[in-house]
Amino acid sequence: MKKIREIVLDTETTGINPFGKDRLVEIGAIELINGKPSGRIFHRYINPRRRIPKHIRAVHGLDISFLRDFPTFDKIAPQFLEFIGTDSILVAHNADFDINFLNCELKRAGYSTLHNHRVTDTLKLAHQMFPAQRNTLDCLCNRFGIDSSARVFHGALLDAHLLANVYRHLRPHKFDRLIKFFRICKQTLCALFNDKRQIQRIIY
Q1: What residue spans define the domains of the chain?
Q2: pLDDT at residue 192 above 90?
Q3: With contact defined as beta carbons under 8 Å apart, do 92 and 119 qualify?
Q4: Which CA distances in Å does 168 have to 36, 79, 198?
Q5: pLDDT score for 200
Q6: Which residues are paired to 97 by β-bridges?
């Protein structure tokens, strides 16, 4: 059986505009193998080379006086890319935010960007599972009985750990949808070719 490798990740930043002057200040990522933590993590603080507005510092508690001694993104990019590899599924909450920041940083550092086809957005999964409800990370932790009391500030590694636990509850919903999709494909192929045994050999 082929291993399913997923990387649950989170980022912290200097603001909300990755295409302007805002930069990453922290990356946290956890490796899952077949849905279970492998014990491998990636965690780096990043020097953004700019001051962080007060209202943003209030979210993650990081300021330039702490971050200035850490490497800039271009220095840690090879380690990050090696950790996520080329075949893993990237899992993030409100993934566009994290992926846009990562891609802008990667592009500035001269690396290829991450493709959306390998990204799973847990916010979208949560909206499908709980339509018309608030589906923030805190709300999902409360809903699934996950202890988030240590989350005084947002932190990339802490939030990645919490999201991995949340994803454990959302993941079956994701794969149930895929199974239903492949069953429909199989039924359609069988109807088209009128040879169920041949189609079964192709699929299995």
Answers
A1: 5-173
A2: no
A3: yes
A4: 8, 26, 36
A5: 52
A6: none
Q: What is the pLDDT of residues 8-48, one digit of tens each?
A: 999 999 999 999 999 999 999 999 999 999 999 999 999 99
In 10 A of CB 32, how many CB atoms? 21
CA-CA-CA-CA torsion sign (186, 190, 196, 201) = negative
pLDDT in tens, 102-144: 999 999 999 999 999 999 999 999 999 999 999 999 999 999 9
Are 22 and 13 a contacting pair, CB within 8 Å?
A: yes
Closest to 63 measured CA to CA, from 73, 52, 71, 48: 52
Q: Is the four-CA dihedral 176, 181, 182, 184 of positive or negative sign?
A: positive
Report in angstroms the alpha-carbon separations of 106 from 57, 77, 91, 140, 151. 24, 7, 18, 30, 28
Predicted TM-score (pTM) of the model is 0.85
Q: Which CATH superfamily is domain 5-173 in?
A: Ribonuclease H-like superfamily/Ribonuclease H (3.30.420.10)
Residues contacting 128, CB < 8 A, separation 6+: 173, 177
SS3 category, 89 = strand
> Mind telling me the catalytic residues?
154
Read off the tokens for 83: 């950790």
